Amino acid sequence: MADVVVASQAKPQFREASAWDQLKYNRNWLGFWFMLPAMAFLIFFLAYPLGLGIWLSFTDTRIGRVGQFIGIENYQWLWDDAIFWLSVFNTLLYTIVASALKFAIGLYLALLLNENMPFKAMLRAMVLIPFIVPTVLSALAFWWIFDSQFSIISWSLKHLGLISQNINFLGDTTWARICVIFANIWRGVPFVAITLLAGLQTVSPSLYEAATLDGATRWQNFRYITYPLLTPIIAVVMTFSVLFTFTDFQLIWAMTRGGPVNATHLMATLSYQRAIIAGQLGEGAAISSAMIPFLLAAIMVSWFGLQRRKWQQGESND
Amino acid sequence: MSSVHIRDVRKSFGNFEVLHGVTIPIEDGQFVVLVGPSGCGKSTLLRMLAGLENITSGTISIGERVVNNVQPKERDIAMVFQNYALYPHMTVADNMGFSLKLRSAGSDEINKRVKRAAEILALTPLLDRYPRQLSGGQRQRVAMGRAIVRDPQVFLFDEPLSNLDAKLRVAMRTEIKELHQRLKTTTVYVTHDQIEAMTMADKIVVMHDGIVEQMGTPLELYDKPENQFVAGFIGSPAMNFLKGHVRSNGVATFEGPNGVKLPLKTAPTASDGQPAVYGVRPEHFTIADDGAEAEIVVVEPTGSETQVFAKLGGEQVVAVFRERHQFNPGDKVRLKPDPSLVHLFDEGTGKRLNA
To answer: In chain B, which residue's Cα lies nearest the Cα of A213?
Structure first.
């Protein structure tokens, strides 16, 4: 027995790990090192500009002149600005109409592309084209399509004898809104369609077979199987779609620059116009910052929509 | 409940024919098992019966009605899928009641029938759970419950036990058989596991390469396989086959590999010296002084019986003994097949030669 005790006492002493060793080998610190590059990117390119923007909105900074802190004066100013409220209205209209139509058309396309048909791969690739073309390029194309004098639509309709005068697409407030929304939908549908198609392909075909044997019609297959199983991915894709649409700038700026009479000014374009064109950085920043509550609201909706549904919870025995 | 008749059914995918004229009569209330190796066309046949695949030619009728062009939902059949195909976003109760809901049955009616099916399958405590929260065996039972609730003319099972572990598989096997005895619904069951087929079926249909090799009761197939394929497929461990020649001069015998003499009860309709395949099941060997000499290679005791792998005339054979012989590798023993239980097949066609 004594031997055993002696042996255990004679165990070699382990050296205390130094702080540097911990930094090198501790799993938590290691994780931190791996996170560092990504964190640096996010801080420099997202957090810093966001913080600066919010700060600027509380100052009277102009281009070429350091501003002073003026509290919420910019916001008070905007509160009484009819053009600001018009841009809020325009943005909401633009986002709601375009997102709803993008969802409807995208879902329809996804269902169509999920069917077996000839040239399936080619058709799927073709759907992506509007998404691939640079925004400004497609906006320029639309600009020509909707041109007051050279519009191909007006030309065609005139030759068909349906109208006698060119339609003033981008000069009329209602038409201008319809045109930019149309262009946005054209650009945004592929993203929705392809993402929903990916979601559709994760649904096991045997579920449809089982439902067919259970007596489901095609509509019931969609209503009771496809749609509920697709809701998680719909939540994701529509969140992104709403965020992109709400913050849209390029398309509007290239097509209408907010006109006619501010009918297509979105918050993003108005902010750019006030901050960069007119040089009122503080006021422009305030308009941009005013978008934050709307975006947060959209994210909150998706947050609750994205929460794992009851049927997704529990153990997986697959 | 009703009978099912499959008459000369063929199926092609493009130019590739996978079923070459299959005829299977199924009586009312029968439990029929389609068994065969992967790719034999058994699942395709079941899916044609369900209406999930078109019938290229031939007819399938359920009861008196030819269903070739009848929509799946009008066929009054219920199917249990290999992966169960439970709707992940519905509770057990909703899964089971879905078909009734689609037929716009009243909620009282749905509740009543779901409850009854749940009682039969001991699922009552699980009715509010989602499929993810169930074990494999429970999911299997829900899939069966979904079929029972509909009270269909015919149950179709597509390899329903292949996703379960061995122990559960045996338990569910008994459960399905018991369920059939209770409901007496005509059942068509597809499996590649011949033990499942043997234990559950009223009638087994052995399929291979798109044709029916043989159909009959489990014991008919075991006792009198019509060809070498069925003989080798049914029974575990599989039948031993030894190539050689029939000797019918004087006492009928079989001359196996390397001149090993094996007994035959009677000379079959084969002439002297005809090449043939001699089939003997592992359990039909005995140790006897007049047996053929064999050298033991491996001994595998399983408790209830002992499997012995031995070299007989240079070929490896398996013998199973319920007695506890003391064998060691390298021992020489004399193995004697029971002449009344041996099978003889034509070497070329594989057809059975002896009566």
So the answer is: B73
Beta-carbon-side half-sphere exposure of residue A96 (alpha carbons within 13 Å):
7
Burial of residue A161, with CB atoms counted within 10 A of its CB: 0-12 exposed, 13-18 middle, 19 or more buried? exposed
- Please, are residues B324 and B306 in contact by the beta-carbon 8 Å criterion? yes
Q: Do A311 and B51 make contact, defined as CB atoms within 8 angstroms?
A: no
Confidence of residue A5 (pLDDT cuts 50, 70, 90): very low
Q: Of B73, B130, B131, which is closest to A213 when you measure between CB atoms?
A: B73
Which residues of chain B have a CB within 8 Å of the CB of A229?
88-89
What is the C-alpha separation between B28 and B266, in angstroms, rounded? Answer: 40
Predicted confidence band of residue B1 (pLDDT cuts 50, 70, 90) = low
Residue B135 has what pLDDT? 87
pLDDT of B198? 92
**Residue A318: pLDDT above 60?**
no
Cα(B32)–Cα(B193) distance, rounded to whole angstroms? 14
Per-residue CA distances from B128 to A317, B89, B241 (Å): 18, 12, 54
B309-341 pLDDT, tens digit per residue, is: 999 888 899 999 998 888 889 889 999 999 889
| B157 pLDDT more than 50 | yes
Residue B161 class from Cβ within 10 Å (0-12 exposed, 13-18 middle, 19+ buried)? buried
Do the chains contact at A317 and B52, CB–CB below 8 Å?
A: no
Per-residue pLDDT tens over the stretch A280-296? 898 999 999 999 999 99
Among B89, B102, B130, beta carbon nearest to A214: B102
* Average model confidence (pLDDT) across chain A: 85
Residue A310 with chain B: CB contacts under 8 Å: 130
Q: How do residues A182-213 score in pLDDT, each as one tens digit?
A: 999 999 999 999 999 999 998 888 999 999 98
pLDDT in tens, B47-68: 999 999 999 999 999 988 999 9
User: Facing residues of B298 across strands?
Assistant: B309
Q: Inform me whether the C-beta atom of residue A116 falls under 8 Å from chain B C-beta atoms.
A: no
Instruction: Kindly state which CATH superfamily the domain A84-277+288-312 is placed in.
Output: MetI-like (1.10.3720.10)
Query: Is B51 an 8 Å CB contact of chain A?
Result: yes
Strand stretches in B63-127, DSSP E: 65-66, 77-80
Residue B220 φ then ψ, to 5°: -60, -45
Mean pLDDT of A143-165: 84
Query: What HEC string does chain A produce?
Result: CHHHHHHHHCCCCCCCCCHHHHHHHCHHHHHHHHHHHHHHHHHHHHHHHHHHHHHHCCECCECCECCCECCCHHHHHHHCCHHHHHHHHHHHHHHHHHHHHHHHHHHHHHHHHHCCCCCHHHHHHHHCHHHHCCHHHHHHHHHHHCCCCCCHHHHHHHHCCCCCCCCCCCCCHHHHHHHHHHHHHHHHHHHHHHHHHHHHHCCCHHHHHHHHHCCCCHHHHHHHHHHHHHHHHHHHHHHHHHHHHHCCCHHHHHHCCCCCCCCCCCHHHHHHHHHHHCCCHHHHHHHHHHHHHHHHHHHHHHHHHHCCCHHHCCCCCC
